[in-house]
Specification:
With about 130 residues, this protein is α/β, with parallel strands linked by helices. The protein has a single domain, classed as Ribosomal protein S11/S14 (Nucleotidyltransferase, domain 5, 2-Layer Sandwich). The protein contains 2 helices and 5 strands, in the order βββαβαβ. Strand 4, helix 2 and strand 5 form a beta-alpha-beta unit. The longest helix is centred in the middle third of the chain and has 16 residues.
Length: about 130
Amino acid sequence: MKKATTKKVIKKRVKKNIVSGNIYIQSSFNNTIITITDDNGNVFASSSSGALGFKGTKKSTPYAAQLAATAAIEKAKLSGFSKAKIFVSGVGAGRESAVRAFVNARLEIESIKDTTPIAHNGCRPKKSRRI
């Protein structure tokens, strides 16, 4: 008896040439996450302070955010990325240094927009405990 062998077909990854897109910087008190998308919103490069090996309180430093931005730029430039709109969200320490890293990388920046959500009072708080 002969065993049926199936040959695995491995597709070669197609390198996409993405010239322009959006950069999203999410800066919290604990971490800085940077995502680079094309114009349709498909993610093709991302990085974060935690992914680079920073742990604990060092993840929230401006230096870690700068290195995360540089790592994301390196991934994006492999596909020809050169023009960007930057959207910054959050109130962490890495906001400014991440934006500065993108400016220093010689990217053509069309706009920088702050998309941090701001509460307009909202829901009524729980009643306070009385002991």
